[in-house]
Amino acid sequence: MLKDEKAVVVFSGGQDSTTCLFWAKERFAEVQTVTFDYGQRHKLEIECAAQIAKEQGVKQTVLDMSLLNQLAPNALTRSDIEIAEGEGMPTTFVEGRNLLFLSFAAVLAKGIGAKHLITGVCETDFSGYPDCRDSFIKSLNVTLNLAMDYPFVIHTPLMWLDKSETWELADQMNALEYVRDHTLTCYNGIKGDGCGECPACKLRKAGLDKYLQRRNRMTEGGRLV
Ligand code: ZN
């Protein structure tokens, strides 16, 4: 428990970062969020993040990162690029995104006296994004500390969890229903259970079904087995 310390959560309003927000709120005295506006296809994503921050009583700073789209056009920001996953990087990949986001988050965090940065990156379900890997996060942590002469600690509570375990973590914090109903993961901009068709919805649903089946098995007969 680090109840006297401040933390900043990199926050998109999706399942992963909302689970991280609950995780941070259990551990730190003060939690703020930072959301990056990089011209996402769906402005609803930013609105959704703002709504969650408000409901959870945490401050949200929205930073304009529209330059990212200028540098790296991709399917999340450009309606003329199809979302496709196949050979090579998915078209949703944004080159260097976590490097940039975490660096800006660190500048903001130091400014408010927060050492702790929380991000929902995950190596388990990762689609080949190099800046979701644990080795990258550890390397960046050292770099940020040197760059700003400040003892940042980057926390990645989801790094080794699969989607079903991320749902389990939310459930352990009594936040499963909230995360299920209030977050936006769907590439088609539909909140909660989403469109059911896009890769993000499929991954999210497969994880939820797997976890709920496991939970049912564990609580059969009203006891943990
Ligand atoms: Zn969807």
UniProtKB/TrEMBL annotation:
Keyword flag Cell wall biogenesis/degradation: no
Enzyme Commission numbers on file: 6.3.4.20
Keywords for the protein's UniProt record, in alphabetical order: ATP-binding, Ligase, Metal-binding, Nucleotide-binding, Queuosine biosynthesis, Zinc
Organism: Paenibacillus solani
Binding positions for ATP per the UniProt entry: 11-21
A Pfam family that the UniProt record links to this protein: QueC
Gene that produces this protein: queC
The protein's role, per its UniProt record: Catalyzes the ATP-dependent conversion of 7-carboxy-7-deazaguanine (CDG) to 7-cyano-7-deazaguanine (preQ(0)).
Pathway given in the UniProt record: Purine metabolism; 7-cyano-7-deazaguanine biosynthesis
Cofactor: how and how many bound: Binds 1 zinc ion per subunit.
GO molecular function (one): ligase activity, forming carbon-nitrogen bonds
Superkingdom to which the source organism belongs: Bacteria
InterPro entries for this protein: QueC, Rossmann-like_a/b/a_fold
Catalytic activity from the UniProt record: 7-carboxy-7-carbaguanine + NH4(+) + 2 ATP = 7-cyano-7-carbaguanine + 2 AMP + 2 diphosphate + 2 H(+)
Name of protein: 7-cyano-7-deazaguanine synthase
